[in-house]
């Protein structure tokens, strides 16, 4: 079996927090100063927010940054 490295990535729980707060993507976007599209692509995992935006989101939800955003260094996986 050949091994390869995964890339680093950031996972987020923005969708979960937004739904629990009963907010639309547009409402959250307005609260944190970005477009609805930014929230959409972030929730889909296709956009890593700036540190400033990540802090705005965590402050808005009054939740530690590391509860909403998780850093994955990557690791070894089997290539079958």
Automatic annotation (TrEMBL):
Q: Which residues form the signal peptide?
A: none
CDD domains (UniProt xref): HTH_XRE (cd00093)
In what residue span(s) does the HTH cro/C1-type domain sit?
Answer: 14-68
For this UniProt record, the keywords arranged alphabetically read as follows: DNA-binding
- Check the record and name the Gene3D superfamilies matching this protein: lambda repressor-like DNA-binding domains (1.10.260.40)
Could you confirm whether the keyword Glycoprotein appears in this record? Answer: no
InterPro entries cross-referenced by the UniProt entry: Cro/C1-type_HTH, Lambda_DNA-bd_dom_sf
Q: Which SUPFAM superfamilies match?
A: lambda repressor-like DNA-binding domains
Instruction: Name any one Pfam family assigned in the record.
Output: HTH_3
**Protein name as catalogued:** HTH cro/C1-type domain-containing protein
